[in-house]
Amino acid sequence: MFASLVLLWVFIWIAILHFKSRRPKNFPPGPLNVPLLGSIFHLSLENPLKDFEKLRKSYGDVYSIFLGREPAVVINGVKAMKEAMVTKAADFAGRPQGLFVNELVDGKGVIMADYGSKWREQRRFGLTTLRNFGLGKNSMEERIHDEIKHIISTLEKNIGKTMSPRVMFHNAASNIICQVLFARRYTYDDELIKLFVGIFNEVSKIINGPWATLYDSFPIIRNLPLPFQKAFKKMENLSRRMVSEHRETRVPGEPRDFLDCYLDELEKVIYSVSCYTKSSFSEEELIIYLLNLHFAGTDTTSNTLLTGFLYLMNYPHIQGNTTPPCLVYVIFVMQAVIHEVQRMTNIVPLSIFHRTTKDTELMAYSIGTIVIPNLSSVLFEEGHGEFVRPGAFIKLPFICGQEDGVLRLAVWVGSCIHKLYVCNPHTHNNF
Ligand code: HEM
């Protein structure tokens, strides 16, 4: 009797789960959803990008998967992406909550904040402050030019030797952001910058690795003492340290950097807030905001630069052969190079997940859920203008018939840095 009751209970439970995990009416199609486990068997834990492409072939540009019990819609291709992110931008402007990345930042900062008054307030402050630091004497351009001098000097010290540019570019990108955030530049052998860059690399691997997929798919593991928590605490402590150092040395009303501006704003809020208004500014928000900007600015920029460098290294024969005809030409070409390198680098292939802010429609499907913008599918889609037609870029007329045009353009990026010759020691005979 008892065994029958247990069996009946299990049967009812499975039936409920099965019913709950069915796709709602007019929801985008997708692979089989296993109750509790979702679409985990269709996605590789290490690198799900190829699986996303396979699913696109089976189900079309807009399809759905399940992250555990949570449905998510994957958007592919220029047409669907434009409808969601441009035409219906406000409907798709939210951020999902309760995922791995939210856990890391505890809902604070700007990148993972949901669409709403807090996000708007923090984002407005960030944009105004960063714009102010991009003008006048302390301009961003000036900082970048200064940093390039240090890159050149590092390269010069290594003439005739082999070196890995990875750490150098991470240090350089991090340093430019450090100057905006903390009004500080660090030498490349400084322990603090090494610590920042090392932890960013570690956290980046964790975010893009199997832990994130497991965490999102199996809520049951969330309360365990998981290894990633230690890495993130280390990163948070570094940010906390910068805030307390600034508190000790700042002069109120005379901000040196982003951090000082935020502390000034925080003070204004403390003195002016009435019991009826609730401000979103707080020291805890600041700590995560600093990490958001530092992290977002370091990994993205340095990996893009690394890809540009890879072009130079793999095609050394075209280095130093170019004589640009005029400045306008150089600017035009430079912009084209940056776009092409960014396209090929594909830094954030699945962007940062979005969420619909209300029930809406996309390509005639009804959607009200997590949204995964598959940026890779857009960057490599054929037939939507010259820059997203693979191979088209190298045939542009200003290349003068050179088939390795994109590389030649990349060389100009290189030659703007310096008249240095970079090559891959494994493939270069004369090295
Ligand atoms: C090659 C360089 C970069 C690439 C490829 C890149 C890419 C992206 C992408 C794909 C997003 C998601 C947009 C969306 O939600 O639809 C994003 C958001 C963001 N990025 Fe970047 N990024 C780069 C550089 C930077 C830098 C230098 C900073 C700051 C110093 C930065 C700060 C941010 C912030 C704060 C957001 C969140 C915006 C919001 O939710 O309101 N990024 N980035």
UniProtKB/TrEMBL annotation:
Molecular function per GO: heme binding; iron ion binding; oxidoreductase activity, acting on paired donors, with incorporation or reduction of molecular oxygen, reduced flavin or flavoprotein as one donor, and incorporation of one atom of oxygen
Requisite cofactors: heme
The keyword Oxidoreductase appears for this protein: yes
The keyword Iron-sulfur is annotated on this UniProt entry: no
Membrane topology recorded in Swiss-Prot or TrEMBL: Peripheral membrane protein
Main location: endoplasmic reticulum
Residues in the signal sequence: 1-22
Subcellular location: Endoplasmic reticulum membrane; Microsome membrane
Any GO CC annotation of this UniProt entry: endoplasmic reticulum membrane
Keywords associated with the record: Endoplasmic reticulum, Heme, Iron, Membrane, Metal-binding, Microsome, Monooxygenase, Oxidoreductase, Signal
GO biological process terms on file: organic acid metabolic process; xenobiotic metabolic process
Family, per entry: Belongs to the cytochrome P450 family.
Name of this protein: Cytochrome P450, family 2, subfamily X, polypeptide 9
Species assigned in the record: Neolamprologus brichardi
